[in-house]
Structure formats: structure tokens, C-alpha cells
Amino acid sequence: MQVSQRIGGILGGGSDGWDVFNRARDMIGDGVAVTELTIGEHDIRTAAPILQDMHRAAMAGHTGYAAVPGTNALRDTVAKRVQDRTGVKTTRDNVLITPGGQSALYAAHMVTCDAGDTALYLDPFYATYPGTIRGVSCTPRRIATRAEDAFQPRAADIAAAAEGAKSLLINSPNNPTGVVYSRATLEGIAQVCTDHDLWLISDEVYDTQVWEGEHISPRALPGMAERALVVGSMSKSHAMTGSRCGWIIGPEDVIGDLINLATHTTYGVPGFIQDASVYALEQGTAFEEEIADPFRRRRAIAQRVLAGQNTVSLVPSQGAMYLMLDLRSTGMSGEEFANALLDAHQIATMPGESFGEAAAGHLRVAMTIEDDAFEAALKTLCAFAQTCAQG
Description:
- By secondary structure, this protein is α/β, with parallel strands linked by helices.
- The protein has 2 domains: 5-45 and 286-383, Aspartate Aminotransferase, domain 1, CATH 3.90.1150; 63-283, Aspartate Aminotransferase, domain 2.
- Helices cover 42% and strands 14% of the residues.
- The chain is built from 14 helices and 13 strands.
- Helix 3 runs antiparallel to helix 11, helix 7 (155-161) packs parallel to helix 8 and helix 12 (284-307) runs parallel beside helix 14.
- The longest helix is centred in the last third of the chain and has 24 residues, at 284-307.
- It starts with a helix and ends with a helix.
């Protein structure tokens, strides 16, 4: 017996990009002390008051089936948050609560694309993007961004790839590059979507982690509210990665269709997690800034360390919990360097190639260990890069 082509083809016949990460985890399993700068997992855990509220809700009996679209309380809270931040009128009818951002990405493609359609995404990309598109039986079409543009997408490149496509997936603040798309970039993207009748799927899970510039949701641009689906999550903004609570914001009729999809797939999110998410969101921006502050600090540490050498270059670090380092001066690919660094110094990073061809010769570093250890690891990485460049 064989599995379906849809499932068997999710990876497109290639690697899932996690080879170095998996090798590092195997080393850890063998008792080797590895410094992990790989995945976007906070080094702090969900704040105790959030967990206490989750416990209160569970003990109060909110452990049965919750409303499939999400509880009214959470949908209202998310809608208010979005409206306050974007100025776009948003009600609970524009909100579907999902089991995390990844579920929302899948659902967004399900509702915008039919089997066999072409769906666009930008390179570099978060590792699951092409697999998500294949998983809904669509054809992924990548659009390369350029290191010389600081990985800001060019509208002309998107337009050149848009013929026959149904959707475009973007992510700002961006994982893996740490780049925040400028207003000019987003206006160009919006124009292409309008000209080519594309759905825009905007992954905004890092919207609270902006170090330079401003986060602009393309849904707020003229004419975009009716063709944009925005993905959000509690994972990054509130250190609630394991709680799996996210959302999609979109036109009311599309949300209605997505509720039908949720009824036949996830059947909603546990009520006690939704209650705790309401509590967390009600703590306001001060709490979100507290969660983001370690990454802001570590970005400053990285800028200081990298300023003291000339082998490793930092892609403009404007947002998210990652740094993208340019290692092309070493003459090595990102994968070669990441493997060599892991072997020589037991420091695990993610090769740029894990996130697409456009990031070849780069390295993604997650700022997810305590400050002193992070600084020491970066200094070791830079010294190792200098040795490789000279060798």
C-alpha cells in the first residue's frame, strides 16, 4: 500500500532543511554539550500568570468542546487588537481561532487555492512554506529575493512570476532574515496582488518583535482588506509556543468558509487555552515588550560583536528573534559552515540553504539563549569564520 501523492510529496523529493538541526539533536542525545542557536523557541517559558489562568479555566470546567470558530471572548479580543494596531475595522466575524500559526497557514491556502493551482512564496522562506503549499495539492512557485536588496522583495519579480497564480505568501517581520518589509515594498506587493488578482497571505506572527522601522500589515493598505488573509499567533508574542493558539483575519465570508473547514479538520482549540490567551492579550503591549526585550538586547550584543571583525556580515536586523549572517567571504556554503562549526565547537545553527536558494552562503542564528552564552557563541562563530576565510 502507498500513501497519497499529496502526503508523499510534501517535501518535494528533497530535504526538509533540518539536517544540521537533527544532527545536533543526535549529538545532544549522545551526551554532547551543544549550544543551540537553531529554532525559534524562547529560552523563557510561558509566564506563570498565564499558566495559572489556564489552570483556573480548566478547573472551572472549560475542558469540553469549545466553539469551533473560537470563543466569542477571544475572537473579540483578537479583533480589537488588530483594529487598534491597523486602523482597519475588525470584528469577531473577521476572526477564526486556529491551533497555532502553522494550522492557519494551511487553512489560508486551502481556502484560497484549488488543487493544481500555483501558489507563490518568497525565498528565503520559513521552512514549512513550500510543504504547506504542496500539502493542499498546489504547486509552489518561489520568487527569489536578493541579498544586495537586504532581502526586500521586488514588485517586478513578483509580477513576473504571478501569471496563472492564485496566492502570494509573505512574512514580515521575516523569518529567517530578520528583515521588516518597508512601506514601499508592501505597497509594491499590494499593487501586484491587485493587478494579478492574487490573494495575499500575510504571516505576521513576529509583529511584536520590531527593532527598527515599523510593522505594517498589508491588510491596512488601500483595497487590500478584501483580498488579504493575515495569520497571527500567541506563540512568539507571548511565549506560548506549546499552547498552539493562532488566528486568521480575513473577509467575513471567507472566515465563514474557514469555519466549515475547521469543523471538518481541527474542530477548534481547547477552551481553557483560549481563556488563557484572552488573559495574556489583556496584559497589553507592556507585557509583549517584556517578552520581546531579550531579543532586542541580544541583537545589540550581536551588532557589537560583529562590528569588531570583517569576515561575517549582518543582514539588516530589523525584527524577529533571528539574525541572518552573510558568510560568503569564507568561500563556504551555509551548510558546509554550519556542519563545520558544529563539529569544531558544538555550536548548532541553521544553514541559509535550509530556507531557500536565495540565502545560500548565509547562516540563521536564533537569539534564544541567555545573553552571556549568546555573546560567547557569536564570538566563537566569528573567530571560526575568520579561520575558514584564511584557510
